[in-house]
Design brief:
Polyamine Oxidase, Chain A, domain 2; 2 domains; 18 strands; globular
């Protein structure tokens, strides 16, 4: 077999797509039922709400070229360059910055589009990855020319031998969790804001107006918790729904009761420390990619997969 990519998030499918474009045989293995990874949505009555990354920004020329193509294809839209800022429960103003981009069909649609020309096998659980005696890695005992782990470090660490170069790179690297609470209301009833950063709050880190983000004005909010709250409710994330819902109500000054809620626990939302490299690839043919390789952003994950795919294709003669 050629190259195996484990993980069908934006980094994994981008890496696989680059390898395939350069003539390298590649297959993506994904344990979930679909692609997307932490670019994920929750669907309520068929409507998607982004519960992973809230948006993405662009500061790299190659990524900008890709985003412009997505835009021509109708997959993304410019959303906002200004977000509200709260200190505790007090709105202290707005923060201007780069344009935040959103996807009307949900951010996973970008991964689905990127995976069109790649073989992806969903529902495939990988148990271990080890170097082989012939210099080729083994995925659950089966040899391949190279393997890429496109996932958060703690997940990669469970698959790798800690005594290998890749295993040592991901060992004991800490990531912060979050809870992502989606709240659906009967009607809109909060001040106009696309999204908000929430600082020095015991419960909330951010809130996004998903109706504004999606462009359909649906009365749906998505709140991200602090890492501390997520750690406290790791065993039972649903127990934090009432606390988070009340906190959102106080923050935005709305007393309306939600019609529905959905809670999702992300155990590995973002690494605590940044890396300077875009990816890892050692002589044993085991590579690592994802948004943990640089600043934790969608662009980081995309570039990590692209650059690792190029390097790996060059080594394999693609």
């Amino acid at each position: 077999m050629g190259v195996i990519v484990v993980g069908a998030g934006i980094a994994g499918v981008t890496c696989a797509g680059e390898l395939a474009a350069r003539g390298v045989d590649v297959v993506v293995l994904e344990r979930a039922r679909g692609v997307g990874g932490r670019l994920a949505v929750h669907r309520h009555d068929g409507r998607p709400a982004d519960i992973g990354a809230a948006y993405f920004t662009v500061s790299d020329q190659e990524f900008d070229t890709r985003v412009r193509q997505w835009r021509r294809d109708g997959l993304v839209r410019e959303w906002t360059d200004t977000l509200a800022v709260f200190e505790g429960t007090t709105r202290i103003g707005d923060s201007s910055g780069p344009m935040r981009w959103a996807a009307p069909g949900g951010l996973p649609s970008l991964v689905t589009e990127s995976a069109r020309d790649v073989t992806v096998r969903t529902g495939c659980e990988v148990g271990e990855i080890r170097p082989g005696p012939d210099g080729r890695p083994r995925v659950d005992g089966e040899p391949c020319d190279a393997v890429v782990l496109a996932m958060p470090d703690p997940q990669a660490a469970r698959l790798l031998d800690p005594h290998t170069a890749a295993g040592a790179v991901v060992a004991d690297r800490e990531w912060d969790p979050i809870l992502a609470l989606t709240i659906g209301f009967a009607r809109r009833g909060w001040p106009e804001l696309p999204a908000a950063f929430v600082n020095d709050h015991p419960v909330l880190a951010s809130v996004a107006d998903d109706g504004d983000r999606r462009g359909d004005r649906a009365p749906v909010l998505v709140a991200h918790s602090t890492g501390a709250l997520a750690r406290a409710h790791e065993a039972a994330p649903e127990a934090a729904v009432t606390t988070m819902t009340a906190a959102v109500g106080r923050l935005l000054g709305t007393a309306a009761e939600p019609e529905w809620t959905h809670q999702h626990h992300w155990p590995y939302a973002a690494p605590r420390e940044r890396r300077d490299r875009s990816f890892h690839l050692d002589d044993d043919g085991i590579g690592l990619a994802g948004d943990g390789w640089g600043r934790s952003r969608v662009q980081t994950a995309w570039l990590s997969g692209l650059r690792l795919g190029r390097e790996l294709a060059g080594r394999l003669g693609g």
